[in-house]
Amino acid sequence: MPEHRILILDDEPEIGQYVATVAELSGFESTYFSDPDAFFAAITVWPEACAVIDLQMPALDGIEVLRQLSAMKFRRPIVIMSGVDRKVLESARHFAKAHDLEVSDIVSKPARLDELRQIFERLRGSIHLLPTRAELADGIARREFQLHLQPKVRLVRDGEDGLSYVPLGFEGLMRWQSPSRGLVMPDHFIPQIAAAGLGAEFSNHLFDLALNTLKSWNEADIDASLAINLSASDVEDLSLADRLWKRCANAGIDHQRIIIEVTETAAMQHPERALDVLTRLRLRGFLLSLDDFGTGYSSLVQLQRLPFAELKIDRSLISDCTSSEHTRIIVKAIIDLGHNLGLTVVAEGVEDESTLELLQGWSCDLAQGYLLARPLPPERARAWWLAHRNMNGRPVASE
Ligand code: G
Ligand code: G
Ligand code: MN
Fold first, then answer.
1. Which of 121, 155, 200, 307 has its CA 20 to 30 A from that of 323?
2. Ligand 2 atom nearest to CA at 351
3. Start and end of every EAL domain (predicted)?
4. Neighbours of ion ligand 3 (CB under 5 A)
5. How many CB atoms lie within 10 A of CB 342?
6. Nearest C-alpha to atom 15 of ligand 1 is from which residue?
7. Mean pLDDT over each residue of the chain, to the nearest integer
């Protein structure tokens, strides 16, 4: 059985020691630190450990600690502890989420023994569910992942009767068909792959799947584009553009049909390196798309420096369009901003017709979402395309 480790950061040694003891009662190996630098050093030694952090410390406040964990791409569960009121703890949780950190629990100090025990038991339970590095490495080596495909369409307004769309292509979303676990969704393996340092192996598998998909489409005369998602570690890999371009050339695939989606957070983690890698991809002729826009904290100046052709508005904004005036203002402003920067604007997560109508009214270019179709296994995606491709201007109807 793999060992489970917890690293605790608290400026008060008695509390740190107390939390460590309770964690050990729940079967964790645990170490506490009162010095943030020693804590961060330990994180680099044990990237698979969970973390417990105090929000209020004299040397470094908890938000700074979260920021640094995010910069280190820490992807394991975090328990936040503090004597500040619940509202501040909730804001810290939001901050963590926006920085791709996983907060498994928040605890008000003083933490009661039974409360801490429960938290650590839950943590143990949830860790058991996560795939280990060895399992993931095997799954990748055995090529157990699949690319599901979600249609992406262009919105058109034709005459009186309003809305319709033209199919353009698909976004590929990975699924893991694990023999022991069944179908595993990306939220349960993407962060683990990053934490396990298996990014390069995983993206090679993804490229295999993407090229095979395009090859099979060529044989069936399907001229759809294919978007794939890259993670922060890919965006730091200087050889990526050449490697992907060569693989397209060897497979006889027109690489201009591949759209590369990168999240704001991934692109901004090391902006200089990302600028280098993304520019090489662009020069090689791949189209770049900025994914999940509106969730991170990027600077618009950086955004303009990076060679994106497309901007995808995050589905958390799109889903609030019909209910929130505030969100409508933001989404409309993002669409205008995108257009002013010469970008194609895509709305993600469109689930109903009234949202699609709003987006159409704001001249949003493309849409994706359950209203049009869910991510589909390859065979069903192909059937969807064949059923829709000749229906230019088909009225919107859900799948
Ligand atoms: O359907 P959905 O649950 O597939 O996807 C959840 C998240 O996982 C999305 O944010 C998506 O971008 C991400 N994701 C899906 N496939 C991949 C992939 O191949 N690579 C990376 N880096 N992220 C992916
Ligand atoms: O890469 P990205 O974060 O954009 O991945 C898209 C994610 O959104 C995937 O998890 C996909 O399954 C999901 N998704 C796509 N369309 C919809 C939708 O209409 N509603 C919701 N709730 N999720 C969607
Ligand atoms: Mn995406």
1. 155
2. 19
3. 129-389
4. 229, 261, 291
5. 9
6. 173
7. 89
